[in-house]
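call fold target=FMN-binding glutamate synthase family protein
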Amino acid sequence: MKWSRIAASLPFVATAGVAARDLTQKDHSLLRNFPVLGHARYGLELIGPELRQYIVASNDEERPFNRDQRAWIYRSAKGVNNYIGFGTDNDMETLQGYPIIKHRTFARSMAAETEDHAIPCAKVLGGARGRAKAFRPRSVVNVSAMSFGSLSGNAIMAINAGVHLAGAMHNTGEGGLSTYHRQGGELILQIGTGYFGCRDENGEFDLERLVAVVESAPVKAIEIKLSQGAKPGLGGVLPGTKVTKEIAEIRGVVEGKTVVSPSRHTAFHDEDSMLDFVERIATRTGLPVGIKSAVGEMAFWHRLADLMSSTDGPRRGVDFITIDGGEGGTGAAPIVFSDSVALPWAVGFSRVYKTFYEAGLSDDIVFIASGKLGLPLAATQAFAMGADMINVAREAMLAIGCLQTQKCHEDTCPTGVATQNKWLAHGLDPQQKKHRMANYVLALRKDLLKISDAIGVAHPALIGPEDLELMDGVRRGVALDEVFGYPEGYGRLGLDLAAEIERIMVEGDFVHLGGENEDNRETAATEQPTR
C-alpha cells in the first residue's frame, strides 16, 4: 500500500518540479507566465508538419510536395496502381500558371514497348566535344546530387542499387565517393568547392586524387558544382552532428565539426579559367565534364556562351549544364536563401537555354533540369522547354521512405533517410528499398512515354513548348513559348538529333547505349503495398 501511494504521487511531484523550473527560468516568457501548460504550445509546434500533413492540409495545399504528389510517388515506388478515380480534385477555376498538356486527336503510337520503359537521352553526352569516353545516357531520369553525410549510408546504398536496376545514373553529391555508392549503379561524380575526395592536405584540388577516385568506380561523367538551389552563393553545410568518423575520413575533415564548404571555388576564378579547369579534367580522365548551378545574374552565362562559341584559340566548353531551381532542395539553408535567392527553375532555365541557343550551342550541350521535376507533369514541362534529362532528389528520398517531416538538418529523420544516427538508419533496409527506387524511376519513364504518345512523338525531348499551355484559371491559357519568350524553333532538337532519337525509339535500339547490356541487370521487381 505504501509503494502504491508513492507511485500515485509521482506525477504530482514531477508536475510540481516542472512548474518550479518554469517559474524560475528566464529564457521563455511563455513558460514563466504559464508553467506546465506552456509546454503544450512547444509540443504542437514540434509536430506541426505532421499535423498539417494528416489533419489540416488538403490534398493540394501542402508544400514542398502535396499529398497527391507524395501518394503518386509512394504508390509508384511500391509498384501498385497509381491511378486515381472520380476526376481531378484540383481547383481548376482558380489555378494560376497550371500546365496543361495538349494531346493530338490523330497522334500515332511510335515508341517501341519495353519492359523497363527505356528512354535514352536524345544527345550523346560529350559527343559534340569528342570526349574519349562520350556516351549516350540510357535514362532521361537520373538521381540528383545528395551526398553521403546528408543522407545515410543505407539510403545511398538503396538509391545506387535502385538506379542500377533501372538503368539510370546516380550523382554522388559533393561529399565524395563512398563505399555506399558502389552498389552497381553508374555514377556522376560531383566536385564542389570543398573538393571532398579529391583534395590535398591543404584542402586544394588534387587532379591525381580525382583520377584515382574515377578509376575506382563506374564514374561516367564529372559535374562541377558552382551553386545549388537550396543555397546559391552560400556553399554547402554539413552539421557537426552528422560528421562521423567515417565521413570525416572520406571528406578529409575533422570528426564532429560542422563542415562549411566555401561559397566559391579556389581552382578557378572566372569563366575563362573555369573552362581551362574543365578541359584539364576532361583531357586527363576522358570523361564528359559539366557544371551545375542555380541561376542569378546572367552575365556569367553570356560570357560562358561567348567563350564556348569563340573561334580564337582551342575550342573549350562544358559538355552538360545542370540548372537547379532556386526553390530549394535537399540541402539545409537559411530560409532567405531557400525562399528568395536565385530564380525559380522555369525562369532560370529558359534564360540560360535561350542564351546558348542564340549562340548556336544548344545541340552541343546536354541540358539537365533539376528542381522538383520528378513528377510526370513537371518533367514534361522541362522537356518542352529544352531539357534533355531531369535529375530527381527529394522524389528519390520519398521513394525510399521519406515522410517529408522536414528534419533533414537535425539528424533525427524518423525513416533513416537523412541521418547519421545508426539506430534510425537501421530502419531503412537497402535490399528492400532498392526495388522501390527502381520502380519509381520506371513509373516516371512510363508516364513520360504515355504523355509523348498522346502528343504524337516518340520521345519526351521531341515535345515542344507549343505543346503545353499555362492556365489562368479557366479563362485563358498561354503556350510556353509565349510565356518564356521562345521564338520558333527554341526548345526543339536539331533535325539530325531529332531523327536519330526517333529512330532509336521506334526501332527499340536500346542495347549498349552507354553501359552494360540491359539483360545483364537484375529485374526491378514490383512489390505489394505495405503500411
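return ok
The radius of gyration is 25 Å. The longest strand covers residues 219-225.
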